[in-house]
């Protein structure tokens, strides 16, 4: 259960993040996929994480502390075309350094837009996670934007691609920041990993 959520700090460098003494869960995915919205939905806050209609809103590693007991981390999106190559490289290095060095990272939630066919950039990213031993879970977002059967179709297609890559399907959740679908399931997953 999330009783309390507070912003702690924003960083460009994983070494300046809060001491890695509490379990941590991070959210990543393509720009505009709904990472910040999901964090607000899960924590019952309107503006804890900054949201925008324009991709590229979140540009730092943002730590939130939950129940004084674990961290939730909002990360910048990948695959955002409208930034310069050098900014893109800086972001990618910041994110990959964070993901490969953060010892207390329990799980990385990789957000995937439930409206789309499997996107090469998402498949490339989870392949990279697999290669680097980053434990990840897929979260399909924006399920409110279309009917259930369309969502299920896209989820199946994505999981099929995962089976091709990993030989098995990853754990996944279907969510909507609009109508809170999946909220209890994601929180139950985290609660199961965190001892309070
Ligand atoms: P960056 O920080 O730019 O990488 O984006 P982000 O992944 O954090 O996305 P953000 O939460 O800022 O949301 C992007 C847009 O999608 C906003 O206009 C949100 O209101 C909208 N959005 C996010 N989640 C949902 C959802 O579940 N349903 C609907 N209908 N809209 C959503
Ligand atoms: Mg964001």
From TrEMBL:
Keywords: Cell cycle, Cell division, GTP-binding, Magnesium, Metal-binding, Nucleotide-binding, Septation. The keyword GTP-binding applies. Residues 21-196 form the EngB-type G domain. Its cofactor is Mg(2+). CDD domains: YihA_EngB. GO terms for molecular function: GTP binding; metal ion binding. GO terms for biological process: division septum assembly. The keyword Cell cycle applies. It comes from the Bacteria. InterPro entries: G_ENGB_dom, GTP-bd, GTP-bd_ribosome_bio_YsxC, P-loop_NTPase. Coiled coil: none annotated. PANTHER family: ENGB-TYPE G DOMAIN-CONTAINING PROTEIN, MSS1/TRME-RELATED GTP-BINDING PROTEIN. Necessary for normal cell division and for the maintenance of normal septation. Belongs to the TRAFAC class TrmE-Era-EngA-EngB-Septin-like GTPase superfamily. EngB GTPase family. This is Probable GTP-binding protein EngB. It comes from Mongoliibacter ruber. The lineage of its organism: Bacteria, Pseudomonadati, Bacteroidota, Cytophagia, Cytophagales.
């Amino acid at each position: 259960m999330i009783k309390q959520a507070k912003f702690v700090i924003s960083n460009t460098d994983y070494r300046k993040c809060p001491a890695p003494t509490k379990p941590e869960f991070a959210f990543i995915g393509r720009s505009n996929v709904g990472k910040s919205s999901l964090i607000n939905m899960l924590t019952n806050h309107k503006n804890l994480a900054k949201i925008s209609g324009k991709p590229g809103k979140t540009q730092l590693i943002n730590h939130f502390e939950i129940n004084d007991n674990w961290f939730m981390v909002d990360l910048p999106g990948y695959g955002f075309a409208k930034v310069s190559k050098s900014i893109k490289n800086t972001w990618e290095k910041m994110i990959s350094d964070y993901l490969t060095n953060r010892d207390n990272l329990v799980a990385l939630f990789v957000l995937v837009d439930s409206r789309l066919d499997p996107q090469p950039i998402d498949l490339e990213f989870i392949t990279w996670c697999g290669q680097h031993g980053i434990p990840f879970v897929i979260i399909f977002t924006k399920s409110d934007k279309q009917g259930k059967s369309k969502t299920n179709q896209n989820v199946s297609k994505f999981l099929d691609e995962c089976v091709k890559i990993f030989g098995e399907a990853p754990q996944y959740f279907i969510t909507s920041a609009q109508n809170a679908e999946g909220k209890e399931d994601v929180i139950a997953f985290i609660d199961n990993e965190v001892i309070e």
